[in-house]
């Protein structure tokens, strides 16, 4: 017995503004039923002594701390800018 009906698949497709054919709806119904069956099998797994995790792999931040520091001198920054004025880099206007 299917856990999801063709009408439900068509309804969800309609809500997502997807145009699907009857053949596609039937195919998606079978695929979604397989996914639901697999999810139900996972519910049967004993996880009583398993610690909750946020990620299956050990993750560690390899980035340095984001500590504010002294920036470059303004003269050095604008030295390579093609157009600058009063310590600011000038760029073409994109707004009218």
Protein model, in words:
By secondary structure, this protein is mainly alpha-helical. 40% of the residues lie in helices and 4% in strands. The protein has three helices and two strands; from the N terminus they run H-H-H-E-E. The protein has helices at 6-15, 22-43, 74-79, and strands at residues 84-85, 88-89. It has a two-stranded antiparallel ribbon with strand order 1-2. Strand 1 (84-85) and strand 2 form a beta hairpin. Helix 1 (6-15) crosses helix 2. The longest helix is centred in the middle third of the chain and has 22 residues, at 22-43. It is elongated, with a radius of gyration of 29 Å. The model has no long low-confidence stretch (mean pLDDT 89).
Q: What is the chain-wise order of helices and strands?
A: HHHEE
Beta-strand content: under 5%
What gyration radius follows from the Cα positions, in whole Å?
Answer: 29 Å
Taking pLDDT < 50 over at least 5 consecutive residues as the criterion, the unreliable ranges are none
**Helical proportion?**
25-40%
Shape: elongated
Q: Which class best fits the helix and strand makeup?
A: mainly alpha
Query: How many angstroms separate the termini?
Result: 63 Å
- Biggest sheet strand order reads 1-2
Number of strands: 2
Give the count of helical stretches: 3
Q: Biggest β-sheet: count, sense, barrel?
A: 2 strands, antiparallel
The mean pLDDT is 89
Keywords:
96 residues, mainly alpha, two-stranded antiparallel ribbon, elongated
Summed up, what is this model?
The protein is mainly α and 96 residues long.
